[in-house]
């Protein structure tokens, strides 16, 4: 089982949810970057568990320790390694799950894949806890992209039956989006109450609820990506499906294209005031032929409802080989998307920086 990703900028994840620590090694970062610790802390805080009843009560500080790759406050260009210690572990909650694997979680496949040597505590290495170091790495990539005028914005687009507005309404990064970016939960203020109510209803019922996260990237140059195999969609999808509980990814109009006619989804080329080529609509989400076209890159991720619910579910006891009733114990997110926006943005930032280094050699004197 390998947990590494990337071409020019490579990320390796290590650790388990209830082990000593989790962390990552980031290989291929440009040298001389002074880390924006405020940005890193902001993104880590947006993902951190235990901050309200809308998320898992597991209380972690998510403090990171930098073990290598920094000298006198700047990246050396060598591998940057961090670790985050696990503190609030309630491993007893997972005793029963050694013989009754949770439907929809990774327990069964993890057990088979590691030939029985699986660590089931908190989902082991499959846990969303491993997204904390990803958010750390993503914040560094986000900082480097921002210095090149590239801005990534994300929000919770829908939760259950509540559907919010789309970032496709925003042609540019503006004050409203800057406010959204600063929230702990990236939800437009006018949608917050209805979305939180949807999560709370599921939580009180001992159930969980699915959601979608939408991201828009402003300021990308034309020309990132390659035709066929290394398309921007392909690279992003590869990274986005690494996020636990992501079961769908769509770019631009995505699956709604399938219900349209060509004449309804024209992205006609026009010139803006400064004579730059643009399109008058953005159905294609900023990508043509796998390559960025200079319009905002727009995509959505669909998150399934959390598998660990305290409602009774019938499933197999792998010891007795009989069906049994399972009520999952422990502390779980009623809606994983509440903490997922910084993770989705982190994956986008990592992929886009990787592409930028590959396509434009941005690593030199970044
Ligand atoms: C931010 C975040 C928090 C999550 N919290 C939980 C949780 O508390 N309980 C749970 O069962 N799954 C949670 N998940 C999802 C599981 O980690 C995921 O369903 C599991 O690893 C299996 O992977 P898959 O759903 O992609 O197949 C969370 C996912 C994310 C992104
Ligand atoms: C700890 C985090 O989230 C965890 C992700 C998770 C899962 O199954 O993915 C299950 C829960 O673990 P536990 O049962 O140990 O409380 C969450 O709390 C985190 O995101 O930092």
Automatic annotation (TrEMBL):
* Pathway entry: Metabolic intermediate biosynthesis; chorismate biosynthesis; chorismate from D-erythrose 4-phosphate and phosphoenolpyruvate: step 7/7
**Alphabetical UniProt keywords:** Amino-acid biosynthesis, Aromatic amino acid biosynthesis, FAD, Flavoprotein, FMN, Lyase, NADP
Please list the cofactors this protein needs: FMNH2
Top-rank taxon, per record: Bacteria
Q: What class of enzyme is it?
A: lyase
* CDD domains linked: Chorismate_synthase
Where FMN binds, per the record, is at 125-127, 289, 304-308, 331
Q: Does the keyword NADP apply?
A: yes
Under catalytic activity, the entry for this protein gives: 5-O-(1-carboxyvinyl)-3-phosphoshikimate = chorismate + phosphate
Give the signal peptide, or none. Answer: none
PROSITE patterns reported in the protein's UniProt record: CHORISMATE_SYNTHASE_1 (PS00787), CHORISMATE_SYNTHASE_2 (PS00788)
GO MF terms on file?
A: chorismate synthase activity
Residues binding NADP(+)? 47, 53
Q: Which Pfam families match?
A: Chorismate_synt
What does the Swiss-Prot or TrEMBL cofactor note state? Answer: Reduced FMN (FMNH(2)).
InterPro entries xrefs = Chorismate_synth, Chorismate_synth_AroC_sf, Chorismate_synthase_CS
EC number, as in UniProt? 4.2.3.5
Q: How does it assemble?
A: Homotetramer.
Report the protein's function: This reaction introduces a second double bond into the aromatic ring system.
What is the protein name given in its UniProt record?
Chorismate synthase
């Amino acid at each position: 089982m390998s947990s590494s990703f990337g071409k020019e900028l490579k990320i390796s994840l290590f650790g388990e949810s209830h082990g000593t620590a989790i962390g990552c090694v980031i290989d291929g970062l440009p040298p001389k970057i002074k880390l924006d610790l405020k940005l890193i802390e902001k993104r880590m805080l947006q993902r951190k568990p235990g901050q309200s009843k809308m998320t898992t009560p597991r209380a972690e500080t998510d403090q990171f320790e930098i073990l290598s790759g920094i000298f006198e406050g700047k990246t050396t260009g060598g591998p940057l390694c961090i670790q985050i210690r696990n503190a609030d572990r309630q491993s007893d909650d997972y005793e029963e799950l050694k013989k009754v694997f949770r439907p929809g979680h990774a327990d069964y496949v993890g057990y088979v894949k590691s030939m029985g040597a699986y660590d089931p505590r908190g989902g082991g290495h499959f846990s969303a806890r491993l997204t904390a170091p990803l958010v750390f790495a993503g914040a560094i990539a986000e900082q480097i992209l921002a210095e090149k005028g590239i801005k990534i914005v994300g929000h919770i687009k829908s939760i259950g039956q509540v559907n919010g507005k789309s970032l496709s309404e925003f042609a540019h990064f503006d004050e409203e989006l800057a406010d959204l970016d600063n929230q702990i939960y990236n939800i437009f203020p006018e949608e917050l109450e209805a979305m939180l109510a949807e999560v709370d209803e599921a939580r009180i019922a001992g159930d969980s609820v699915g959601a979608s996260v939408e991201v828009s990237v402003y300021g990308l140059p034309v020309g990132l990506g390659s035709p066929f195999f290394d398309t921007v969609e392909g690279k992003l999808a590869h990274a986005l499906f690494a996020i636990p509980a992501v079961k769908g990814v769509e770019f631009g109009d995505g699956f709604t294209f399938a219900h349209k006619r060509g004449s309804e989804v024209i992205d006609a080329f026009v010139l803006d005031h400064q004579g730059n080529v643009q399109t008058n609509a953005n159905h294609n989400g900023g990508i043509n032929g796998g390559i960025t076209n200079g319009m905002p890159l727009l995509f959505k991720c669909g998150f399934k409802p959390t598998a660990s619910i305290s409602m009774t579910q019938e499933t197999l006891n792998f010891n007795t080989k009989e069906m049994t009733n399972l009520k999952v114990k422990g502390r779980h997110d009623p809606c994983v998307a509440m903490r997922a926006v910084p993770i989705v943005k982190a994956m986008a930032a990592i992929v886009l920086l990787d592409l930028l280094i590959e396509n434009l050699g941005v690593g030199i004197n970044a």
